[in-house]
Design goal:
Helix content is 16%, strand content 30%. It is of the alpha+beta class and 488 residues long. The protein folds into two domains: 32-55 and 96-399, Glycoside hydrolase, family 7, domain (1,4-Beta-D-Glucan Cellobiohydrolase I, Chain A); 455-487, no CATH class. The strands form nine sheets. Strands 1, 2, 6, 7, 12, 22, 23, 24, 25 and 27 form a ten-stranded mixed sheet that branches. Strand 6 (102-105) and strand 7 form a beta hairpin. The two termini are 26 Å apart. Residues 1-20 and 403-450 have low confidence and may be disordered. The structure holds 2-acetamido-2-deoxy-beta-D-glucopyranose (7 copies). The site of one 2-acetamido-2-deoxy-beta-D-glucopyranose has 8 residues, from loops. The site of one 2-acetamido-2-deoxy-beta-D-glucopyranose has 4 residues, from helix 2. It catalyses: Endohydrolysis of (1->4)-beta-D-glucosidic linkages in cellulose, lichenin and cereal beta-D-glucans. Keywords: Carbohydrate metabolism, Cellulose degradation, Disulfide bond, Glycoprotein, Glycosidase, Hydrolase, Polysaccharide degradation, Signal. It comes from Phialocephala subalpina. This is Glucanase.
Length: 488
């Protein structure tokens, strides 16, 4: 009897220590999105990655009720006067991804700007992060390496931005005693615009701080314009505009678009290469190169009116004084070397209508057609699909010989046979597959654990959990509720 009483008392105390932050109403099922890591010698190996939607898209409410801990302007200061009290009072829920505008099918991720429910259109504008099997963000180290993906921008109209980019977030998402969910709940966002958000590292942003970090915009695009832009930072000073390469802005106005050299009505394979001065993965970043593949042919990057066809360190620093003052490509390269989180988003912009990307000297769009109200009424179905994401040694993620392949020939890229079909068929199958999301979500929930060790505070089990179930030495996996077990 005595022993039982002691155990009960302990169990009652534990949630207070760990903060009752994990809700029990919607399971946190992060949609599976396999990716590949490639080497020249070993070919491509499939990674058991998934995507998680940003923290702010999750419902955060009172632990014993359904009152929201957030308000239209911030956080409820009665429920959340301090980090510790907020963590005791509030719980974060999982998200229904389809209604948040996110679907996955095989190795393809589709993001919708708007979603419809019972005939009502609402703005979804999701932003998601690539998560590793251990419940932390997958850290891509791209210095001296390349990244490849296929993209469908055919329905992204003027004013839309379908983005694939990197930010130097913490791998854990800032997981802590006040934020046990961490990366598996999408916390810890930062970028070179230094956004001021309600939450920082998944806890109360008491100091109203901006979350600044190095950002590498690999792809910001719609059917009419595209930009590739490094944004280096030093501390809380960032290059907000960046030294970007947009073919139209560089004077090559017929290169990218409907019927252009790169034809945006068709699927596009995009390869971005980060060259160092000495060819190693630890050297100084000297050049960022871009290649495209369409119809089985490698297409060289646009040549600007001044003859430039890549972002070189000298061009970045000479064209952008802020980049120069922050160390330019050298600083960007150091961040790429340490590792950055892969981010996917779709958004439009009420203030500027995305004119900086696709209008005036940057693109063919008329300055007012990017108005979100117009987009919502004329093309509410606008979406983008990213698929077949691979990174690794330069030249290892695509077939340089014929140009049409989607990876070096290796039997180790098992499960990718369908992804090796031409881009055209893979995108077609993605489209028809988006309606079968329910079954792919159901499948995700039954996926067995797939390796890795979970660290202190990390998730190690619960309904829908497909990540690591073994805790690092010194910690044990303890159930907090049916949806969440964590390493304590
Ligand atoms: C904040 O939460 C308290 C307690 O649930 C509630 O009474 C109050 O109305 C909330 N305030 C706002 C602005 O939502
Ligand atoms: C939630 O309910 C439990 C059980 O009734 C209670 O022990 C706990 O104090 C409540 N928590 C809050 C923050 O109200
Ligand atoms: C997030 O937490 C980490 C340590 O866990 C800290 O170094 C970092 O400064 C925090 N970020 C912000 C923006 O406060
Ligand atoms: C645009 O870039 C292509 C390289 O893909 C080049 O052949 C062409 O001359 C460029 N056009 C202009 C107008 O600079
Ligand atoms: C933008 O792209 C769409 C789709 O290809 C095309 O229909 C439209 O004419 C383009 N707009 C401009 C201004 O070029
Ligand atoms: C720009 O687009 C808007 C909205 O489609 C249209 O009303 C306007 O006439 C267009 N302006 C020009 C100069 O084409
Ligand atoms: C991915 O999961 C499968 C099935 O659980 C496993 O066999 C494979 O080793 C995992 N891959 C990696 C890279 O961990």
């Amino acid at each position: 009897m005595v022993q039982i009483l002691v155990l009960t008392a302990l169990a009652a105390v534990l949630p207070l220590i760990t903060a009752q932050q994990i809700g029990t109403q919607t399971p946190n099922v992060n949609p599976s999105l396999p990716t590949w890591k490639c080497t020249t010698a070993g070919g491509c190996i499939q990674q058991n990655t998934s995507v998680v939607i940003d923290w702010n898209y999750h419902w955060i409410h009172t632990v014993n009720g359904s009152a929201s801990c957030t308000t239209s302007t911030g956080v409820n200061s009665t429920l959340c006067p301090t980090e510790a009290v907020c963590a005791q009072n509030c719980a974060i829920e999982g998200v229904d991804y389809a209604s948040a505008g996110v679907t996955t099918s095989g190795n393809a991720l589709t993001l919708h700007q708007y979603v419809q429910s019972n005939g009502v259109t609402s703005n979804a504008s999701p932003r998601v992060y690539l998560l590793g099997a251990d419940g932390n963000y997958e850290m891509l180290q791209l210095l001296g390496q390349e990244l490849r993906f296929d993209v469908d921008v055919s329905t992204l109209v003027c004013g839309e931005n379908g983005a694939l980019y990197l930010s130097e977030m913490l791998a854990t998402g800032g997981r802590s005693q006040y934020n046990p969910g961490g990366a598996s709940y999408g916390s810890g966002y930062c970028d070179a615009q230094c956004p001021v958000q309600n939450w920082i590292n998944g806890t109360l942003n008491t100091g109203n701080e901006g979350a600044c970090c190095n950002e590498m915009d690999i792809w910001e695009a719609n059917a009419n314009a595209t930009a590739l832009t490094p944004h280096p930072c030093e501390g809380d000073t960032c290059d907000k505009s960046g030294c970007g390469f947009n073919p139209y802005a560089m004077g090559n106005t017929s290169y990218y678009g409907n019927g252009g050299t790169v034809d945006t009505l068709k699927p596009i394979t995009v390869i971005t290469q980060f060259y160092t001065t000495d060819g190693t993965t630890t050297g100084t970043l000297s050049e960022i190169r871009r290649l495209y593949i369409q119809n089985g042919k490698v297409i060289k990057n646009a040549v600007s009116t001044s003859g430039l066809d890549s972002i070189t360190a000298s061009w970045c620093s000479s064209s952008d004084a802020t980049a120069a003052s922050l160390g330019g490509l050298t600083t960007m390269g150091q961040s790429l070397g340490r590792g950055m989180v892969l981010i996917f988003s779709i958004w439009n912009d009420n203030g500027q209508y995305m004119n900086w990307l696709d209008s005036g000297s940057s693109g063919p769009c008329n300055a007012s057609e990017g108005n979100p109200t117009l987009i919502e009424s004329k093309t509410p179905g606008t979406y983008t699909t990213f698929s077949n994401i691979r990174w690794g040694d330069i030249g290892s993620t695509f077939d340089q010989g014929t140009g049409g392949g989607s990876g070096s020939s290796s039997s180790s890229s098992s499960g990718s046979s369908s992804s090796r079909a031409t881009s055209v068929t893979s995108i077609t199958s993605v489209r028809s597959a988006t309606t079968t999301t329910a079954s792919s979500r159901a499948a995700t929930t039954t996926t067995a654990s797939n390796g890795g060790t979970a660290g202190h505070w990390s998730q190690c089990g619960g309904v829908g959990w497909a990540g690591a179930t073994v805790c690092a030495t010194g910690y044990t996996c303890q159930a907090q509720n049916p949806y969440y077990s964590q390493c304590l």
